[in-house]
Known about the structure:
This protein is α/β, with parallel strands linked by helices. About 45% of the residues lie in helices and about 15% in strands. It contains 14 helices and 9 strands. The chain has helices at about 5-25, 30-50, 70-75, 125-135, 155-160, 180-190, 210-220, 240-250, 260-265, 275-285, 290-305, 315-325, 335-340, 345-350; strands spanning about 55-60, 90-95, 105-110, 115-120, 145-150, 160-165, 195-200, 225-230, 255-260. Strands 4-3-5-2-6-1-7-8-9 form a 9-stranded mixed beta sheet, with helices on both faces. The longest helix has 21 residues, at about 30-50. It is globular and about 60 Å long.
Amino acid sequence: MVDPLAPFNALAVLVNQTQDLASKDDKLPPGRSEQLVALAHRIGKIRDLENGSAKKRVGVFGAPNRGKSTLLNTLLGGDVLPMAQVPLSTTTIEIEQDSSVEQWRLVINHASGRIESRDCESTQEVAELLERFGSRRGGAEPAERLRLKGAFPNCRILGMGGVLMDTPGAEVAFGSDERLEAEARRAVEALGNTHVVLFCIRADQIGSRSDNDLYEKHIRILSPVHVVTMKDKWPDDPGYLVDEVFKQYGLTQANPILFSAVEARSSETRATSGIDELEGMIERELEKLSSEAGLIPCLRDYELAIEDYPRLRPHRIHFLNLYHAVENQPDGSGDLVLARMNAAPEFWKT
């Protein structure tokens, strides 16, 4: 039986060999090593998903009070997650579709290690429990993890088999507040289990120290989708917002999504709210994590990372192993990849 992951396993060896060569090259710009780290991370995510050891997780990350829960409520099609003008979330909340659940079911992983399950009959009951165990004003000891299951018929992402994750505001820039540190720790830990990262930036706070420190320390290498929330707070010049994201965070994989939950709630302004663009972007990112669609984007990114640095190309045997792994894929599924490699024989050493 042919292993659909064989090309990714062979490409992972190539990337690892190149990373080893890059680590010994003091003339290499830091950005090139960063590209290789991001590529290795993406290949690892594809292998995890193909092996069935993980579900497709879409996580929303950012500093406190960046509109993360409001954004997720818009994707879910209803106000399920607690929202307020002050930072609330203290716990990672995972949301997934489960047609076997009559209404909603909340699974609570308590800090003590105890796990309990509670069935809810209304979104108000769900929101009250989430606020109680997953927010600063809840009164109870914050849970380590919350999992919400339900039908969610209006959520495109959950309908694709994805899992949406709300995370605490990650404040890594300031002080040594124990509560803030615990919340930031939970958010950073969740990054390790996330396949598509949505990095939320408020339109009126682009480039803040909180955003920049989190981005540089934890987010950049994960090739996030940049989402500028609350764009209605800057209605005059949306082009300025796009320019500011590029200025503050460098080149991104695509233009940032400008999003307004206020506009998304109205049928008259939904088309300009950014929600459709965001859902489409998430769907494309999830598709790129499949073994069928993910290989060519990975090859392209590998080419871009080292095309100017022939000294970073490993021995020919590693390229040949990749070529043969693709060649052995059934039903011509590797033909487009082989065509790409054969079109650049000097690079791919075919």
